[in-house]
Write a structure and sequence with these properties.
Blueprint lengths: L11 H4 L5 E6 L1 E4 L7 H9 L6 E2 L11 E2 L3 E2 L7 H10 L9 E4 L4 E5 L2 E5 L6 H26 L3 E4 L12 E8 L4 H19 L3 E2 L11 E2 L9 E4 L7 E4 L11 E6 L8 H19 L11 H9 L8 E2 L5 E2 L1 H12 L9 H18 L9 H14 L7 H11 L8 H7 L9 H9 L7 H11 L3 E5 L2 E6 L2 E6 L11 H5 L5 H13 L9 E4 L1
Helix pairs in contact: 4-6, 4-13, 5-6, 5-7, 5-8, 6-8, 6-9, 8-9
Length: 528
C-alpha cells in the first residue's frame, strides 16, 4: 500500500510569518518532428489544449519585474546572449502569441519562453501546496496528451531544469512575508541556506554544464551550474542565488513576496514539502531576529562545488576563514529554527522533525532516502542500471536515463514507475490531488478567483492574482481581492456558494462593503 502521511491539523502558513506560498514550474517540451525554433508555438498550443472553464485575459498591468526590493528599479533585465541570437534567427513569425489561462482551481497555465509554465494557486497549507503542484503535473500531462492526439505525434513533457545543451528553465517558489523583515537580514540570512539547501532539495543531474569539471559524473542539483551572482533582480541571465524581485501582488507597503529561483523541480512529494517547508521555517527564523551568523566568502563557487560533491566533503569558505560542509551549514539553520515555538501537531513541527531526520540520514546513509529525495532516487536507479551493464556508467546513456526520470508520461517516466510501484513516500492522497485539479484551496483568495472562473468565465474581461474584472450589464465591474492575504473573511465562501449570477455576486459584495466589519475591509467591488 502507498505510504501516505496523515495531514497535520494546523497549516504551516497559519502559525508563521509566511502568509501564503506558491510554486511556478516551467516544463521542458519535446514534439516529434519539431525543431527547437518551433517549440514556442507548440508550447502555446499545449496551453490552449486545456479544457474549459478558464479565463484567458491575464492582466499584466500590475506586474513590476524590474523593481528591486532594495528600493530601486532597474532600466532593463539582463538577457542571455544565446537567447537573443536564437530569437533573432527564429524571427517574429515563429514566436507564438501569448497563451495564458487561469483555471478553475485558481492556478495559472501559460507559455513562457517556449515552456509551458504552471503556477499553483496561493496556499496557506504546505499539504495544499503539494497537492496543487502534483495537480499541475496532471493538468499539463493531460494537455500534452490532447495535443499529441491532435498532431498524431508524440508530445513529451519533462519536469526538470535543463535541456543538456547549456540552457536552463526554472522551478520557482514564492513566499509572502511582512515587509517589516529588514532587507539586509533577509538577503544575508538566506544566502548560505539556499547555497546548501540542494543537499536535500536537488533533483540530481548527470554531468556538468557551462563549467569545466571533468571528474563530476553526477551532481545534486540541475540548476547549480546556471548561477552567476549572489543577489540580484534578474532571472534569465546573470542569475542570482537570491532573487530580489519586488512584486508582492498585494499591498506593497505591508508585504513582500520572496521569489526563490535557485531551486530544482521536484517530483518527490517529500522533497517538495521539505524544500518549501524548511525555507518557510528559515524565513520565520530570520523574521524572529535569529539569523545564523554565517557569511560565505564565495557563494557562487560554493553553490556549484556543493552540487558537484554528493559525498558532502566539500567545505565552503566563510568570510571569517572557517570552512563548512553543506550539511554543517544546514545544521546551523536547523538549530536556529529549533528555537521557534511551533504549535503541537502543526505542519511546521512536522517539517522541523523531518529536517533533522533527513540531515542525519544524509550524513550516515544517503541511500536510505531513495524513497523521499529526488537526487538520491535517481542516483540509485542509475547506479543499479550501470551495475548491470558491461559498459558501466556511460555518460550519454546515463543522461538519457536522467531525462527519462523526469518524463511525465505514465509509461516512459522513471519516477512515474517508482510511484506505480509504491516505492516513494506520498504526503497527499490521490483524492486530494484529484480535487486540486479542479478546485482551489478553500482558505485563501484563490477560492474566490476560482469561483469566478468556474461560474463567470465568459464574463471575465481581465484577471490577475488579486483582482477579477467582469462585464456586468454593459459596464465593467472589479472584484478586488488584493488584500485578502490573511485568509478569506469568515462566512464569505459560504455566502458565495449560493450565488448563481454575476448580479448576485455584485450585490453580495456591495452589501458587505456597506456594512464591513474588521475582517471584511479588504473586500471591494466597483465600476472601472
Amino acid at each position: 500500500m502507498p505510504r501516505v502521511h496523515v495531514r497535520p491539523l494546523i497549516p504551516l502558513g497559519h502559525s508563521l510569518s509566511v502568509r501564503l506560498m506558491g510554486t511556478e514550474t516551467e516544463y521542458g517540451i519535446y514534439v516529434d518532428g519539431v525543431e527547437p525554433g518551433g517549440l514556442d508555438q507548440e508550447s502555446a498550443r499545449l496551453v490552449e489544449a486545456v479544457p474549459p472553464p478558464f479565463a484567458a485575459r491575464w492582466d499584466y498591468s500590475a506586474e513590476t519585474p524590474r523593481r528591486d526590493l532594495r528600493g530601486f528599479t532597474v532600466n532593463a533585465l539582463a538577457r542571455d546572449a544565446r537567447d537573443a541570437a536564437y530569437d533573432a534567427a527564429v524571427g517574429e513569425a515563429s514566436r507564438a502569441a501569448p497563451a495564458d489561462r487561469v483555471l478553475a482551481n485558481g492556478s495559472r497555465l501559460y507559455n513562457d519562453h517556449a515552456h509551458p509554465e504552471y503556477s499553483t494557486p496561493e496556499c496557506a497549507s504546505l499539504w495544499d501546496l503539494v497537492a496543487h503542484e502534483k495537480a499541475g503535473e496532471q493538468i499539463v500531462a493531460a494537455c500534452a496528451s490532447r495535443r499529441a492526439a491532435d498532431l498524431g505525434r508524440r508530445v513529451a513533457l519533462y519536469k526538470n531544469n535543463t535541456d543538456f545543451h547549456g540552457m536552463s528553465y526554472g522551478a520557482h517558489e514564492n513566499y509572502l512575508l511582512p515587509r517589516s523583515v529588514p532587507d539586509e537580514v533577509l538577503l544575508g540570512g538566506l544566502l548560505p541556506f539556499l547555497v546548501s539547501r540542494q543537499a536535500f532539495a536537488g533533483a540530481g543531474k548527470v554531468g556538468v554544464e557551462r563549467h569545466r569539471a571533468p571528474k563530476v559524473r553526477y551532481q545534486l542539483s540541475q540548476r547549480a551550474d546556471f548561477f552567476d551572482t549572489d543577489v540580484g533582480v534578474d532571472t534569465l541571465a546573470r542569475r542570482p542565488i537570491v532573487n530580489t524581485r519586488d512584486e508582492p501582488h498585494t499591498d506593497a507597503s505591508q508585504y513582500r513576496r520572496l521569489h526563490v529561483i535557485c531551486g530544482d523541480a521536484n517530483l518527490s512529494e517529500y522533497a517538495m514539502a521539505l524544500k518549501v517547508g524548511v525555507t518557510a521555517l528559515v524565513l520565520e527564523t530570520l523574521a524572529a531576529g535569529r539569523a545564523p551568523a554565517i557569511r560565505l566568502a564565495k557563494p557562487v563557487e560554493a553553490v556549484r562545488r556543493i552540487s558537484w560533491d554528493p559525498a558532502f566533503e566539500y567545505r565552503a569558505e566563510t568570510v571569517d576563514g572557517g570552512r563548512l560542509t553543506a550539511l554543517e551549514i544546514q545544521r546551523v539553520y536547523l538549530d536556529a529554527a529549533s528555537a521557534l515555538e511551533l504549535p503541537s501537531g502543526s505542519e511546521g513541527e512536522w517539517v522541523l522533525r523531518q529536517w533533522a531526520a533527513m540531515l542525519d540520514a544524509l550524513a550516515t546513509d544517503p541511500s536510505s532516502l531513495a524513497d523521499r529525495i529526488d537526487w538520491v532516487a535517481k542516483y540509485s536507479m542509475l547506479e543499479s542500471y550501470a551495475a548491470g551493464e558491461a559498459s558501466g556508467w556511460e555518460p550519454e546513456v546515463m543522461q538519457s536515463l536522467d531525462l527519462a526520470y523526469h518524463d511525465l508520461d505514465a509509461e516512459a517516466g522513471l519516477f512515474r514507475g517508482l510511484e506505480q510501484q509504491d516505492a516513494v513516500q506520498r504526503l497527499v492522497t490521490l483524492g486530494q490531488v484529484a480535487r486540486a485539479v479542479s478546485a482551489p484551496p478553500g482558505d485563501t483568495r484563490a477560492a474566490l478567483r476560482g469561483l469566478c472562473v468556474q461560474r463567470f468565465a465568459s464574463q471575465i474581461e481581465a484577471i490577475r492574482w488579486g483582482r477579477v474584472v467582469l462585464s456586468l450589464n454593459g459596464s465593467l465591474w472589479a472584484f478586488d481581492m488584493e488584500d485578502l492575504v490573511e485568509g478569506v473573511p469568515p462566512g464569505l465562501l459560504e455566502a458565495l456558494s449560493g450565488v448563481g449570477t454575476l448580479e448576485e455576486l455584485a450585490a453580495l459584495v456591495a452589501r458587505r462593503d456597506g456594512g464591513r466589519d474588521g475582517g471584511d475591509e479588504a473586500l471591494a467591488g466597483g465600476g472601472v
